[in-house]
Design a protein that fits this description.
- The complex is a heterodimer of chains A (about 400) and B (about 140).
- Chain A is α/β, with parallel strands linked by helices and about 400 residues long.
- Chain A has 2 domains: about 140 residues, Aspartate Aminotransferase, domain 1 (Alpha-Beta Complex); about 260 residues, Aspartate Aminotransferase, domain 2, CATH 3.40.640.
- Chain A contains 14 helices and 17 strands.
- In chain A, the strands form 5 sheets. Chain A has a 7-stranded mixed β-sheet with strand order 4-10-9-8-7-5-6, with helices on both faces.
- Chain A is globular and about 70 Å long.
- Chain B is an alpha+beta fold and about 140 residues long.
- Chain B has a single domain, classed as Sufe protein. Chain: A, CATH 3.90.1010.
- Helix content of chain B is about 50%, strand content about 15%.
- A 3-stranded antiparallel β-sheet of chain B has the order 1-2-3.
- In chain B, strand 1 and strand 2 form a beta hairpin.
- The two termini of chain B are about 25 Å apart.
- Classes of the chains: A alpha/beta (about 400), B alpha+beta (about 140).
Chain lengths: ~400, ~140
């Protein structure tokens, strides 16, 4: 029998100390969650506990602190493995974040498999972090970067992909959920098409890990990457999941300590997975803190969170659409609670400045997706991105503040 | 009026405002009063691209004074431009080059000139100073 408990958003809010803060003497309304999420007490305490009681460099010491923290670090790896349903814990590489993870694959996979005249496919709605590393790879290897477009609702034209893939296509990199539009991309379909042509797929999960159940085996992606800080964990830690067969074959992209098996001046043999890809002292505090954040999500239940966020999305969608002259960018049927919008004739920066003074944190600008903005012929939007702890009251405050913006600049 | 006198005048004006809303409304008003920049002067060369807002700046000598025209696509930015133009435009290059723009801090708009804001305003001030230096050199030739 499943136990049904109501989603108690107020109890959840009490777990996040920063949500009790005031800015400009007003209660903080934090709607910049796609940039970074706030941290629950459990994560803050775990990180602080390591520094006050447990700190020691891992994998190297014979002493008590080092071996016990090494155990916690490797436990964190297993918890990440379970959270994303990976087959093996050595398929989990700890990095400093999504950008690092993508760069690692672009460099290492690129070294091994991409040659002159080959092709890499990305999409028109990628974050710069999933554009530039591939661009640089293509320049280095004299390969070609091809772009899968999206339509005006912000939905990828996945059916075009079949025609775009050729015998020269080596890899496809696509975001799971768009940071600017909130579109949930049909990555399963993209992967099915790609795999029919034996082309591997990297999924940028920076915006999906915190909003829905991730099962990399079911998705069948070859790589899945995300940042700890966007899933309520500490800053500066991230994950690169790769299928064992790829990670085994790919060369290390950084070298140094920890990743070696034997070093002589004549040559070096590399350590086995996952250590081959973790040169130097890893951010073990960040990795353990990320695992603590995942534990927190497991306690609440990722499906319960998704349900709450779905309700918020419906409510916010109604409230925002009721504002005359407000246009939302991204109207896919499959989307999360991210709203990119502009109010007629009012610059996004002006909107953001006034919202800020009213205690509402949003992001303005191109959100590191300039090609996406070019599609809509705009140079930026206001983005309100919601998370597990946001409330309908906060959406009401956003709504009322936007009316004020209209009044000031209209 | 000197640059210093103009700064003091602006500080006096802003001392009347009780809250941010009054200040912003005043900036909006100033942005509307800013003389319109000749669209032909809104060239790529005169564009200062900020991450958040765009600023255009053009400089011309008028006698021994340096005159600036500027514009922005964001209203608040444009309002602050109006203040900067009021203080710096029509002054001698040597005065502009050495100007300490303390008024921005005193009227509580310092954050708008922070390098992390990337609204183009800090770059605009730097460009104004660069123009002033260049024209001063030219005058002394």
């Amino acid at each position: 029998m499943t136990q049904v408990t109501a989603y108690d958003v107020n109890a959840i809010r009490r777990d996040f100390p920063i949500l009790q803060e005031q800015v400009y003497d007003k209660p903080l309304v934090y709607l910049d969650n796609a940039a970074t999420t706030q941290k629950p007490r459990a994560v803050i305490d775990r990180v602080s506990g390591i520094y006050s009681k447990k700190n020691s460099n891992i994998h190297r010491g014979v002493h008590y602190l080092s071996t016990s923290l090494t155990d916690e670090y490797e436990q964190a790896r297993r918890e990440v493995q379970q959270f994303i349903h990976a087959r093996h814990s050595h398929e989990i590489i700890f990095t400093t974040g999504t950008t690092h993870s993508i760069n690692a694959v672009a460099y290492s996979f690129g070294e091994k498999y991409v040659r002159e005249g080959d092709e890499v496919i990305i999409t028109e709605m990628e974050h710069h972090a999933n554009i530039v590393p591939w661009q640089v790879l293509c320049e280095r290897k004299k390969a070609r970067l091809k772009i899968l477009p999206f339509d005006d609702r912000g939905v990828l034209l996945v059916d075009e992909l079949e025609k775009m893939i050729s015998s020269q296509t080596r890899i496809i990199a696509v975001n799971h959920i768009s940071n600017s539009l909130g579109t949930i991309n049909d990555v399963e379909k993209i992967i099915r098409i790609a795999h029919r042509h034996d082309v591997p797929v990297l999924v940028d999960g920076a915006q999906s890990i915190q909003h829905q159940t991730i099962d990399v085996r079911q998705m069948d992606c070859d790589f899945y990457v995300f940042s700890g800080h966007k899933v309520y964990g500490p800053n500066g830690a991230g994950v690169l999941y790769g299928k064992e067969k790829w990670l085994e074959e790919m060369p290390p992209y950084q070298t140094g300590g920890e990743m070696i098996q034997k070093v002589t001046f004549e040559g070096t043999t590399y350590n086995e997975l996952p250590f081959k890809f973790e040169a130097g002292t890893p951010n073990y505090v960040g990795a353990i803190g990320t695992a603590e954040a995942l534990r927190y999500l497991n306690r609440i239940g990722i499906e319960a969170i998704a349900g709450h966020e779905e309700q918020l999305m419906q409510y916010a969608s109604e409230r925002l659409k009721a504002i005359d002259g407000l246009q939302i960018y991204g109207s896919s049927d499959e989307k999360i609670s991210v709203f990119s919008f502009l109010i007629d004739g009012i610059h996004h920066y002006d909107t953001g400045m006034v919202l800020d003074k009213m205690g509402i944190a949003v992001r303005t600008g191109h959100h590191c997706t300039e090609p996406l903005m070019s599609h809509f012929n705009i140079d930026g939007t206001v983005r309100a991105s919601l998370a597990m702890y946001n409330t309908k009251d906060e959406i009401d405050r956003l709504h009322d503040a936007l009316l004020k913006v209209k009044q000031m600049f209209g | 009026m000197t640059i210093d006198e103009k700064q003091k005048e602006i500080i006096d004006e802003f001392s009347l405002f009780d809250d941010w809303m009054d200040k912003y409304n005043y900036l909006i008003e100033l942005s509307r009063d800013l003389p319109e920049m000749d669209p032909k002067k809104k060239t790529e060369e005169n564009l200062i691209e900020g991450c958040q807002s765009k600023v255009w700046l053009d400089a011309q000598m008028d006698g021994d004074k340096l005159v600036f025209m500027a514009d922005s696509d964001a209203i608040i930015t444009k309002g602050i431009i109006a203040l900067l133009i009021r203080v710096l435009s029509g002054q001698k290059p040597g005065e502009i080059k050495n100007a300490d723009l303390y008024f921005i801090d005193q009227i509580g708009l310092k954050e708008n000139l922070s390098p992390t804001r990337s609204n183009g305003l800090l770059s605009m001030v730097n460009k104004i100073k660069a123009y002033a230096m260049a024209y001063e050199l030219k005058q002394n030739e």
